Amino acid sequence: MQAFTTLKGLVAPMDRANVDTDAIIPKQFLKSIKRTGYGPFLFDEWRYEDRGEPEMDCTHRPVKTDFVLNQPRYQGAQILLARENFGCGSSREHAPWAILDYGFSCVIASSFADIFFNNCFKNGILPIVLDDKVIDQLFKECAATEGYSLTVDLPAQTVTTPSGHSFAFNIDGFRKHCLLNGLDDIGLTLTHADSIHAYEAARRQQAPWLF
Amino acid sequence: MGKTLFEKVWQQHVVQQNEDGSTLLYIDRHLVHEVTSPQAFEGLRLAGRKPWKISASIATPDHNVPTIDRDKGIADPVSRAQVEALDNNCAEFGITEFGLGDIRQGVVHVMGPEQGLILPGMTVVCGDSHTSTHGAFGSIAMGIGTSEVEHVLATQCLIQKKPKVMRISVNGSLPAGITGKDVALYIIGEIGTAGGTGFALEFAGEAIRALSMEGRMSLCNMAIEAGARCGMIAVDDVTLDYVRGRPYAPKADNWDAAEAMWRELHSDADAAFDAELVFDAANIVPQVSWGTSPEMVLPVTSSIPALQSARDEVQREGWRRALTYMGLQENTPITDIAIDKVFIGSCTNGRIEDFRAAAAIVQGKKVAANVKLAMVVPGSGLVKQQAEAEGLDAIFTAAGFQWRDPGCSMCLAMNADRLEPGERCASTSNRNFEGRQGMGGRTHLVSPAMAAAAGIAGHFVDVRDWS
Ligand code: SF4
């Protein structure tokens, strides 16, 4: 996993609430058995006029020109700005894979759905929760300023606007540590193999039918 | 002070408490299907790891499988490759799989309980958000992503933050014609799709205790649509009667020991909850979703809301978009909405009781002329077999419904079963997101009886008036 430390990046605004994972990556792309290659299909139904199919070449597909990611000013964006309950719905990890593969490594929203939030950390994406009012302000500033970018500093836990306003965000210590170091949790958990064996031995006494 | 049901099950699974507040939680049961597992098995292979406890995981293909002409195999090469990848991965790692030709194959969340793989007080995970279904057994059951599927395979544990616990009580008895599905939709309509975020829900109260296991599974299935980590219901005789005698359930002395332990799986009278909501069962009317989020749901007796009644601009914009997508006008009575297709099935409503309820409605009647396709898709091969033994398939086919083979089917349209753009469907599944049942398709979530009645009438009707 790629480590995340600081990022100064162009912001793309996704101005709707309850963006679900079916919208982020429609189900036909879930047939792939790979972890990569989903970026061209991110928000497929909102982004293109035709129906996307796995492995198709997207370079000549007709696009919906008013969709945010199709607007020239947001090309190359690395930060996705969103509203409440972003990532609700299915547990598909293909959603963060598509977001990452497209080029975003940070999503800022007023709230996230649990499973999606959790999945982001497993893939080196930083999901940041900021207050509703702050989110509103960022949407306004982003609309008003072409080339609007934000600076995200994970060690300091701040998001800073071009005019120098900083907003603090929370993140739990373990997740921060893993993101900063690009750590794989499986290796970390296996360092506790003895505790897992001890738990199993005790549990087997109490509930032998589980073993 | 007493403990909540959630707290009791959680405490029994703590392997280690980490300094940062997270918990290493032991996982008893892991259900596996073809869509969210290939990258996890690939990860194990690349790292040279083996499953920690092979018998904890059980697999079946469901999302991509055809529901018709199964003997011809899977026509779509991409779907076929994914199902074959599951077969190969299970063979390589030694995991039990109920494959396509097996009578036990079905939607993971129907197959698991049916086989007795889900026992009270377990921790259950699956790379699928509707894993919440299994909370109906007093277990902690959570949907996880593919990285966590790999983590559970490799370590039999998950790193979890303990959620808060909310009790939702439904007091009184449910009026005739009201099902677990209506209760689920009603609650989501009241609290919203983020109403349960950060919480484990416990469903309690007289109306919940009166539900069958099927009804409880429908309700817990949709806890995830309220944003919750999981939904749970206390263990009682209904739970034990369902589990007893199933293939993977404990037998003889083990059963007696298990039963004694499981009888403790309820919240203590003096347990404290982080949040508490109470509803009155008498207020619940058959529900129909009208929009593109499960919280956009109404009693069948009402009309599509006027935009001016939205609580704020963000909601109004969401409603406006939903009305456009759904091709609906403000103030239209729900019963004036005509449908093109009917889908009865899924992990929410693909169990025997669901088909009995739907068959009772359609018996001796015919699907309306404006309905292009009405399909019934059993949740598993065993549900199919049982329904056929009861003659339900004959009732459906005589009425003009198609009787299919088990799988997820048009719940998410990864196989050939889907809506065409603009088509409107009465569906017993759990999600009405844009494009969920096919690009441009329009989904209305309802109970099996409501879907069946809409298929006969050609538009939504109140099943309570059905004769
Ligand atoms: S039936 Fe639908 S909701 Fe259930 S597991 Fe299958 S696709 Fe998911």
Automatic annotation (TrEMBL), chain A:
Function per UniProt: Catalyzes the isomerization between 2-isopropylmalate and 3-isopropylmalate, via the formation of 2-isopropylmaleate.
Subunit structure: Heterodimer of LeuC and LeuD.
Pfam name, any one: Aconitase_C
Catalysed conversion reaction: (2R,3S)-3-isopropylmalate = (2S)-2-isopropylmalate
Pathway connected to this protein: Amino-acid biosynthesis; L-leucine biosynthesis; L-leucine from 3-methyl-2-oxobutanoate: step 2/4
Single GO molecular function: isomerase activity
Residue ranges constituting the Aconitase A/isopropylmalate dehydratase small subunit swivel domain according to the UniProt record: 1-132
UniProt keyword list: Amino-acid biosynthesis, Branched-chain amino acid biosynthesis, Isomerase, Leucine biosynthesis, Lyase
EC number: 4.2.1.33
Cellular component terms (Gene Ontology): 3-isopropylmalate dehydratase complex
A biological-process GO annotation: L-leucine biosynthetic process
Enzyme class: lyase
Gene3D superfamilies: Aconitase, domain 4 (3.20.19.10)
Similarity comment: family membership: Belongs to the LeuD family. LeuD type 1 subfamily.
Entry protein name: 3-isopropylmalate dehydratase small subunit
InterPro entries hit by this protein: 3-IsopropMal_deHydase_ssu (IPR004431), Aconitase/3IPM_dehydase_swvl (IPR015928), AconitaseA/IPMdHydase_ssu_swvl (IPR000573), IPMI_Swivel (IPR033940), LeuD (IPR050075)
Classification of source organism: Bacteria, Pseudomonadati, Pseudomonadota, Candidatius Mariprofundia, Mariprofundales
HAMAP family in alphabetical order: LeuD_type1
TrEMBL record, chain B:
Annotated ranges, domain Aconitase/3-isopropylmalate dehydratase large subunit alpha/beta/alpha: 7-458
Species this protein is from: Mariprofundus ferrooxydans PV-1
EC number: 4.2.1.33
Protein name: 3-isopropylmalate dehydratase large subunit
Lineage, uppermost ranks: Bacteria, Pseudomonadati, Pseudomonadota, Candidatius Mariprofundia, Mariprofundales
The keyword Disulfide bond is assigned to this record: no
Function recorded in the entry: Catalyzes the isomerization between 2-isopropylmalate and 3-isopropylmalate, via the formation of 2-isopropylmaleate.
Family: Belongs to the aconitase/IPM isomerase family. LeuC type 1 subfamily.
Biological process, per Gene Ontology: L-leucine biosynthetic process
Binding site for [4Fe-4S] cluster: C347, C408, C411
Alphabetical UniProt keywords: 4Fe-4S, Amino-acid biosynthesis, Branched-chain amino acid biosynthesis, Iron, Iron-sulfur, Leucine biosynthesis, Lyase, Metal-binding
